[in-house]
Write a structure and sequence with these properties.
Order of helices and strands: HHHHHHHHHHEHEHEEEEHHHEHEEEHEHH
Strand order of the largest sheet: 3-2-1-6-7-9-8-10-11
Structural class: alpha/beta
Radius of gyration: 29 Å
Number of helices: 19
């Protein structure tokens, strides 16, 4: 151990870290679904490097205390025994499972990795299921040569205590985002653009004494953004609790690892179908939260056995009091009802990213929408620009709900049309910092802004038959360039003169060639 811990740690900054991870992904791209493998190796190396740093700190402290009294040899033995004690380490890594022991495995590397990761899980209850969901022993797509190349690449930098959780977490999120960007529709299923999440979190404004819940948490990005919002506002992060549920097995694992990488200790992420088996209960009832936020699957019409299975699901009557859409129709307002049922009656704020069609579709959806409007729970509806999301070019909307509105907002809904404010990109558009600020300021001000925001009475919504389409209430002012008719006409005349001159020259050339 002593020789190993004296290895010089290369310092790495944010951009180097991002490049390093993306280069690792490129080693496996076009060969396998690379993200689970890259993130698992990253997590394993982080665990190993931190363990060695913890060992080194204790070893050096004890050795320096003991060497004058006992001499170097005895001091070394005592320091080694002390440094291996479980109490000094957040996670237990058996010595034969450390990165330095594994990296030089000559053959059957995948099999060795599988064994090591399983052993680490056995020694750490909190890591069960996080390291063994991927199989590295797949020589058809991961031969020893390719795994050796990947391990050598990861060996370039230490990512122990020299890399803060915030820095490593940001790099982790970057890789997840890049995977979403290059995976098209598949990527959009688990990742929401961070700028959209920032808008939602800043509006909902979670506090350090509150509980935050995402029932369709994907890789955990919304909960992590809420965590940093509280941190940046000086909150006590030991007080706040974060809860998430995710259906997809691998995405759930990524979310859990995401929490560990960001060093978010008070997060409870569970795997399962939120509709059929909601995991968070309290006192035999559905648990209530202060802040509920999510980007659930949009306009999902493929929920198997939706009506009958949902009716038999736990707390169905409490969660879906306004009705269950029939099989084959959208589940958007089913998600919204679950989120509203999960919010506290007094402090509860709910924010959802959803398909624009949820605002105006008819049938059962309209019936549910009308009942929620009449409850006066809809606070604000925000129309977003198009092409922000990875799995669709559709614009999407944010809907903010409050069960207990402030007096000045009661009986009213704020409509914000933010569809024209964005930075245009080749593949994806993006909200700029000033666009985010403009939306949040308009929400907080709660007043009319020409072409951008309008406070609308519930009576007007009733007159529009509960159609909540933002463009029905706020039409954006699109600036157009002024046209100087005289200047345009002058240019036309100039072009006509040039055309006549060119035609005359062509006729002269043709006469010389005796064509005409």
């Amino acid at each position: 151990m002593e020789k190993r811990i004296n290895k010089v740690a290369d310092l790495i900054d944010k951009e180097q870290l991002k490049t390093w991870l993306w280069d690792a992904a490129n080693i496996l791209r076009n060969r396998v679904d690379y993200m689970p493998y890259i993130l698992t190796l990253l997590f394993y190396k982080r665990l190993s490097d931190v363990y060695e740093d913890e060992y080194k700190e204790v070893y050096e402290r004890v050795f320096n205390q003991m060497k004058e009294k006992l001499g170097d040899e005895k001091a070394k033995k005592i320091a080694e025994i002390e440094a291996k004690k479980k109490s000094w380490h957040k996670y237990q890594i058996p010595e034969d499972c450390l990165w330095e022991r594994v990296k030089n495995t000559p053959v059957n590397i995948g099999e060795k990795l599988n064994e090591v990761l399983m052993k680490i899980e056995e020694h750490n209850e909190s890591l069960r299921g996080l390291l063994t969901r991927v199989d590295f022993n797949r020589k058809d797509v991961l031969p020893d040569q390719k795994l050796k190349q990947l391990i050598d690449h990861f060996d370039r930098y230490r990512i122990g205590k020299n890399v803060s959780p915030d820095l490593l977490g940001e790099a982790y999120e970057y890789l997840v985002e890049q995977f979403a960007l290059t995976s098209g529709k598949k990527g959009g299923e688990f990742f929401t653009p961070k700028e959209v999440v920032k808008v939602l979190v800043r509006i909902l404004d979670p506090k350090d004494y509150e509980e935050v819940y995402d029932p369709a948490c994907g890789t955990g990005g919304m909960l992590i953004t809420a965590y940093y919002h509280i941190k940046e506002n000086g909150g006590d992060l030991k007080k706040t609790k974060f809860y998430g549920q995710e259906l997809n097995d691998m995405t759930y694992v990524i979310a859990r690892v995401n929490m560990v990488v960001h060093d978010i200790k008070n997060a409870d992420i569970r795997q399962g179908d939120t509709f059929l088996s909601p995991h968070f209960t309290e006192g035999g009832r559905l648990k209530k939260f202060d802040v509920v936020l999510a980007n659930p699957p949009w306009n999902d019409k493929n929920l198997k056995g939706l009506e009958e299975n949902i009716k038999r699901a736990p707390f169905s009557g409490d969660r879906f009091p306004f009705g269950i859409p029939p099989l084959g129709t959208s589940a958007d307002w089913l998600w919204i009802q679950h989120m509203l049922a999960s919010a506290r009656d007094d402090t509860g704020r709910v924010g959802v990213v959803i398909d624009n069609g949820a605002l105006f579709r008819g049938g059962k959806e309209k019936d549910i929408r009308a009942k929620i409007v009449e409850k006066d729970w809809i606070d604000t509806i925000i129309a977003l620009p198009e092409k922000l999301f990875y799995n669709t070019g559709a614009p999407g909307v944010l809907i903010i709900f409050r069960k207990n509105k402030p007096d000045n907002r009661k009986g009213k809904i704020l409509f914000i049309n933010a569809s024209q404010d964005y930075e245009e990109g080749k593949r994806q558009n993006k909200l700029r910092p000033q666009d985010i600020d403009k939306i949040v300021d308009a929400y907080n001000d709660f007043k009319n802004i020409d072409g951008y925001a309008r406070v609308v009475s519930l009576e007007e919504v009733r007159e529009n038959d509960y159609n909540l389409n933002v463009t029905l209430y706020v039409t954006p002012i699109i600036e157009r360039d002024e046209v100087d008719i005289g200047e345009v006409w002058s240019k036309i005349e100039t072009l006509e003169d040039e055309r006549g001159s060119l035609k005359a020259k062509i006729e002269e050339y043709l006469k010389e060639l005796q064509v005409i």
